[in-house]
Amino acid sequence: xxxxxxxxxxxxxxxxxxxxxxxxxxxxxxxxxxxxxxxxxxxxxxxxxxxxxxxxxxxxxxxxxxxxxxxxxxxxxxxxxxxxxxxxxxxxxxxxxxxxxxxxxxxxxxxxxxxxxxxxxxxxxxxxx
Length: 129
What we know:
The protein is α+β, with helices and mostly antiparallel strands. Helix content is about 35%, strand content about 15%. It has helices spanning about 5-25, 50-65, 95-105, and strands at about 40-50, 70-75, 85-90, 115. The chain has a four-stranded antiparallel β-sheet, covered by helices on one side. The protein is elongated and about 65 Å long. The relative contact order is 0.19.
């Protein structure tokens, strides 16, 4: 028997196990193409070149600060946003967006703001608190 075969099998099994564990432990996020964002006031926390970076920031916000309703959206998908080819890490607040921003987010990120992602031709709502 080839001694390399069991080693390769073991490495393949470990790789699959690590991948499954990472997926299981990752914070479940909303799909950026989802209608869940349409016409809901959300908080823009940060923007990133890749979806993985935006998701990682969302996971940090969850694990370090306890935020639960997080998502990633692709800015060009929404016509009323800037069109920049970036992924936006968003927080979907419970209750009033401006109040949630003042009470929980401004201490983390002074540049965060509430807005409504939409494809209905609405003007961007970047009113902060």
